[in-house]
Amino acid sequence: MTSRAGVKLALVYFKMGLSPLILNLITVIFEEPKLTQIMKLENSRKNCFRILAFAGLISTSIVSAQEWKGYSSASKAEQETLESTFLKTVDFPKFKEHLKTLTAKPHVSGTKANEEVADYMVSVMENAGMKVEKYPYDIYMTSTGGSSVVELVTPHRMPLNQREDILKEDRFSSDPTLEKGWNAYSGSGDVTSTVVYANYGTKEDFEKLVEMGVDIKGKIVIARYGKNFRGFKAKFAEQFGAAGLIIYTDPADSGYTKGLVYPEGHNFNESAIQRGSILTTDYEGDPLTPFEPSLPLDGKKKIKRLDPSETTLHTIPVLPLSYGSAKEIIGKMKGAVVPSGWQGGLPYTYRLDGGDELTVRLKVDQPKEFVRINNVVGTFKGTTYPDEWIILGCHYDAWAFGATDPNSGTAMLLSLSETIGKLVKSGNGPKRSILIAHWDAEEHGVIGSSEWVEQKRDELDAKAVAYLNFDGGVSGKNFGASSAPSLKNLVTEMAQKVDYPYTEKTLYDQWRGNKEEPSIGNLGGGSDHIAFYMHVGVPSLSGGAGGPTLYHTNYDSFNFYEKFVDPEFQMGGTIEQWTGLMTLRMANAEVIPYDVERYATDLKGHFANAVEKIKKYDEGFGGFDKVEQSIAVLEKNAEGLTSAIKTALASGKLSKKEIKDVNKQLLALEKSFIDEKGMYFGSWYKSLYASTDPFSGYASWILPGLEYEISSSSTERLEEWDERYSAAIADLADKMLKLTQSIS
What is the CATH architecture assignment of 73-142+370-588? Predict the structure, then answer.
């Protein structure tokens, strides 16, 4: 027994951070056998609560509010042991080893170097004990930028640099296979014309130019990166009549105005060029096979492909430049001064146009053809529920070396394959199947993963528990995550079980900072979760650690990573621990551990936010009555389902057959938001809950049907959306009720 005074004193010492005193206190008030066990624990401040909990001074629920959804008491105890073993099994140095190998050469999708990366991954995964398959597709694209020129013609001829400087401090920068800057899916053409500056090249920026009387037709537009997806800059430039587009990174956004530049600092130097795809269709994946997988042309199954003329591929030439080259254009412009907010960081007054004397030549010859790509997918087959899949993924193709984007995530997943493989070989195989996927051609437009989802659509509907995405997942020391509602508790709970390597805190506490709890973002666009979440309705999350990046430049090398991103190489193992815990927690639960109550909580907030936006342009708007009624029912049914599952697991009354049926019904929950009609901005986007922002290409649109109306200040279809959303929510609530009744 312990005294209340002793407990109180121990807690006071904890708040002071004096963990040795706590141990001394425990020495006095506890008997020797228990003391011996306690003293084996790590003597650090972050473990004081754990020490007190072990000693029985405080409840273990205070240490970590783990709900253990989906587990019975017996399976929980077994899983706790497994998770502890897993954390100890993670081999931290492996991350560095894999990252160094993956980034040895530039490896753009479709190149031999990228095939070598794929072969390396296959070897690692097979050695770990996974069954590995390659999924080939023939994509209409290019694996090279072709030929290109950008030069001043008048008043003086001057060719402009299109490639990063070779730096003595970075041996990777002299690699002979590094290419000029290029934008995938640029049109081909050779244009000489005068110049217009369009700020960030957003739709609003182009409209502002027209409003100010600036003639865009036939001109070469120069716009800076930022605010929206680069493909929309090209789309709007073409729509407003431009003959060509140059996109550059302004130092106001990443460069010397932000701090020291590479190689002295982590900001863009004057030769750094952001590459990237400008593919802008109203669907994801191969531009010639919407809704269908772009299976090999020489395969048995033939897929009907569009003619390129039937697509919305860009026709004007588009090239990226560094600010060191862009300044040669901007510094010579003589037109009217730009409006407030358009001034960048170069040491010139920014002008709307260059006048008649300044002409620029822009030439791009980028012929497209069918290019073979390969997804690499490894599987640890489940011992109990092999047809229920936990899917993890990251792409492996890169614009150059790709040390942060994407291969920090690739390296982490390879190491995780090896760690789980060790558990499997020791007889601790997962109950559900774990699939680890490495996607190809993501940088060309999220292509590899989209084609796989289209190919596996029916299987994913029946088997996919969750998709976890780790694109660039270890590209810094700042942790964060975005998630579907049903996975948010998993994200936070597993972060509580992992130590952050650079402070005396858990990953969770480091993440939340001074807040009561961390904020979890909403999934947007720009990566491989899109098709899973927004096309077929698989609960998804994206997370990891971010930080400084020389995004899509030739400098995103191993040298940059070890100098500026994580010199101690501790975050790879840390993120692997977090990822592995989430994976194993889902894989081994008797009942899939979704947080079904989070749907109603989040939906109430999202609809309140939407109503507030609508009232800004329609003061008399009364809200979504049908939706409110459906959410009220959903909230009640979710509480009932949570209670029923918890009671059933505690009683141990569920048979294996009943558990299988329960999980089958749980897999169907997210599908309530999949609407075959899809969105008005693109029927490929079928989720009513979330989509990519079709105007920025990156941001998340929660309740995208409403956001599309709000974007144009429209009230025309609000009644329709009240019907469609309330029907979806009612369907979700009904599924929960039926599942509750089947358990009770």
Answer: 3-Layer(aba) Sandwich (3.40)
